[in-house]
Design goal:
GNAT superfamily acetyltransferase, Aminopeptidase, Acyl_CoA_acyltransferase
Amino acid sequence: MTNITHDELARAVADAERAAALAGATVREMRGKDEEAEVGELLARIWGRTAENPVVPREFLRVLGKTGNYIGGAFLDGKLVGASLGVHSSPERLTLHSHIAGVLPETVGKSIGYALKLHQRAWSLERGIDVVEWTFDPLVSRNANFNIRKLGAFPLEYLENFYGAMADTINAGDLSDRLLVRWDLRDPQVAALAGGATPGPAPEGDVTVLLPDDIESLRVSDPAEAKRWRRAIRDELTGLFNDGAKVVGFERGVGYILQNASTEEKKTDED
């Protein structure tokens, strides 16, 4: 098990509690069949699913809870408005895979998702887990900004059509390409951001990959153009990743900032 110090853990818990307080929310672990079912119903509402076609089946939520996986909930005025699920990876990796997280549309922008992530961070560290990974749609600029700049997580891999066809109101009709990101919970930058530090200026890189301003609206107004963006970003990012480039930052209006493998090797030699 990772040797996480008492001070590290205490700071992580305090950071999570502060984030929840600033959001005006209560964030806690969800336990038992009734609360797990409530999480399933909330996720179905967020993703536009029905009880007959849930995002996460009630039976699987029961298994997650019984086997000690992460089920977190965020409340505003006693009402469940956000939730997150994470599953343990293989034992030797000491990694949690955060499968899904979401908040009700009317609460977007209130930092509830951020409070959920910091709760998940503290929960993981309490269990000796120092890495959390998850996937997100590489075309959604606000998610890229949140994951990379606000949390300090970085993409590892481009996953083409990862889930296959998805029958929900957010993803229907589009390919489910995803970026897999890694969140090193004990990294000094991650700890500083969790403690309230303002993200610094975007680093310099060798290549930038521009994103559409609002792919979610574009999918509705011009589906064909949205699909062109999907193919273009897939081709550009997979090509760069195959050449050894790494994402080192993100900036709204600029996009992903990548460093070529040759630049990374040069920096390593200089160090």
